[in-house]
Amino acid sequence: MSSITETMSSISSWLRAITELGVSLILAFVVIDVLFPGATGVVENISGIVGQFSEKGLVGLIALLLFLIVFRQK
């Protein structure tokens, strides 16, 4: 039983590391896009995603809040 928990812990730590790397890359691309507008297109994509959440009204707000709660859990 301990090997299963060790495996799940290992997978969880790998996924957390990959997610943190992805967030770091997104932040780096946002900085690059601010310094050189239109270089990466990340800002337009982020604004499109936020626009999709806002178009859905209350349902979009609840989905965004659930996403933030899940993302913040560590």
Which class of secondary structure composition applies to the elements? Answer: mainly alpha
Q: How does the overall form come out from the CA principal axes?
A: flat
Number of strands: 0
Runs in which pLDDT lies below 50 for 5 or more consecutive residues are none
Give the integer mean of the pLDDT values.
82
Order of helices and strands: HHH
**Number of domain modules:** 1
Strand content: under 5%
The biggest beta sheet, please? none
Helix amount: over 70%
**Count, helices:** 3
> Which radius of gyration do the C-alpha atoms yield?
17 Å
Kindly, what is the distance between the CA atoms of the first and last residues, rounded to a whole number of angstroms? 23 Å
Features:
3 helices, 74 residues, mainly alpha, 0% strand
